[in-house]
Each structure stands twice: as C-alpha cells, then as structure tokens.
C-alpha cells in the first residue's frame, strides 16, 4: 500500500532551567523521499549539554546534504552522524570549561525503507497500530541490569541510578551504536524518537495508543501534557519526533 509520512517535532523545557535537548527533521535537498530525523539529549552542566546536543543536529543536517545513496549506505550515513558528533564533542572539552556529553537517536526514510541508530538512553519505538514492534535498548546501567534479568520494567523506573549511562557521545570510550531497519514499512506503522524526559512516564501501550488515536501534532501535545502532569513539578526536558505512516488517501484528506 502506498503511504505518506505525517510528522511532528515537539519540545518542552520541563522544570529545568535550560533546554538541553535538541531535535531536527530534514529532507534531502536533492532527493525526494529521503528524510532524516534526529534527536539528542545533552548533558554536561550549564550550556555544555546544549552545545553537545547541537553538534549532533548540525552533523545530521550537514551529512544528509552530501549523502549520495549510490556511494554510501544508510547505515554509513547514520554512523557518520554519531561518530563525527562524538569527535567534535570531545574536542570541545579542550576549548571550554565544560564536560559535554549527549545521547543520539537517528531515523532515516529512504526508498520505502526505514533505518535507525542510537547511542545512550534516548529511544526509538516502532509501533504498528497499538502493538510495539520494537524498542531500542538503553545504554544505561538500568538497561544492562534489565537485559541480564536482574531488574524488571517497574523497578527500572525507581532505581536510584536510572540516569547513569554506560555509553554516550563525548566520553573517553568510543560510543556504542545499535542499528535497526525495516525493509517494508507500510501504512499503520509509526515511529517515535524521544528523550527520557518523555518515555520515563509511559508504558509502551500508552505511547502506541496515543499516537494511533490522533494526528502527530495532537498526539505530541497529549503526551507532553501527560508527562508534565505525571512529573509533578520535577520533570526533565522533553523532546520527541513522531513519524506516522498513513495511506495516501488519508494524507490527501
């Protein structure tokens, strides 16, 4: 079935003094049907995290502009964004008094296929209707404990070290990058990129149901409002990108 992509990019500062998340949604300047979504959650004290996250967005935009599918694979593009941002963020440590770090999650649509990559605990979800087809694994202490079966989903949300990352951009160690792809996405599929300021307050079913029940902008507004209410005045920065595939007839309406 032919489909079109409905999208929305949304952010909220939460209860923090500064917005250190960054998001971007870019179309290829010369190749129709090629779209890159990117989200970064910066860390590193006042302005340091914002600087780090901004580097991820800049790399994504610049690398997409010179992306040539005949000479570079989708995974190579996504890898270059994360790897080059990591190097630049590390270099800024020597030119400032900051210690900047960032997560990164990238999502590429090209020729009817979907590709993604992530590092850190910002997530990408793939929903089909209200079903969660896949969810990225967090590169965090809590994520590792869950993978080893030593912590369940409910316990992870209360763990005192739930914000400790094992991999991110800007650290001394090379970032761990995980990849995914969908060969034949179709109408009814939806993708959510988001920072922990959003996903920490929802079950997968709640996220999928909200995105399924409304257009992307309305769904984003609902999710942010619910996250703010559930945070109880102690919420982190919120950022999200929704990419929802709909039949062409629905898009026309």
From TrEMBL:
Residues 6-245 form the PPM-type phosphatase domain. SUPFAM superfamilies: PP2C-like. This is Serine/threonine protein phosphatase. Coiled coil: none annotated. Gene3D superfamilies: PPM-type phosphatase domain. It holds the Pfam family PP2C_2. GO terms for molecular function: protein serine/threonine phosphatase activity. SMART domains: PP2C_SIG, PP2Cc.
């Amino acid at each position: 079935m032919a489909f079109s992509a409905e999208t929305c990019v949304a952010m909220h500062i939460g209860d923090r003094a500064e917005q250190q998340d960054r998001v971007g949604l870019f179309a290829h300047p010369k190749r129709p049907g090629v779209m890159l979504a990117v989200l970064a959650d910066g860390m590193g004290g006042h302005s340091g995290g914002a600087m780090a996250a901004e580097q991820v967005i800049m790399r994504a935009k610049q690398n997409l502009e010179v992306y040539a599918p005949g000479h570079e694979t989708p995974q190579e593009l996504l890898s270059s964004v994360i790897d080059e941002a990591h190097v630049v963020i590390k270099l800024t440590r020597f030119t400032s008094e900051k210690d900047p770090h960032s997560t990164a999650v990238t999502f590429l649509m090209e020729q009817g296929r979907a590709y993604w990559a992530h590092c850190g605990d910002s997530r990408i979800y793939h929903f089909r209707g209200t079903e969660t087809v896949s969810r990225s694994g967090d590169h965090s202490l809590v994520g590792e404990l869950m993978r080893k079966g030593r912590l369940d989903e409910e316990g992870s949300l209360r763990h005192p070290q739930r914000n400790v990352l094992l991999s991110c951009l800007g650290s001394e160690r090379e970032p761990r990058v995980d990849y995914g792809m969908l060969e034949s996405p179709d109408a009814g599929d939806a993708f959510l990129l988001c920072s922990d300021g959003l996903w920490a307050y929802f079950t997968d079913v709640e996220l999928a149901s909200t995105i399924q029940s409304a257009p992307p902008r309305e769904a984003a507004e609902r999710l942010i409002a619910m996250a703010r209410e559930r945070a109880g005045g102690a919420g982190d920065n919120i950022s999200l990108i929704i990419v929802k595939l709909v039949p062409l007839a629905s898009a026309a309406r």
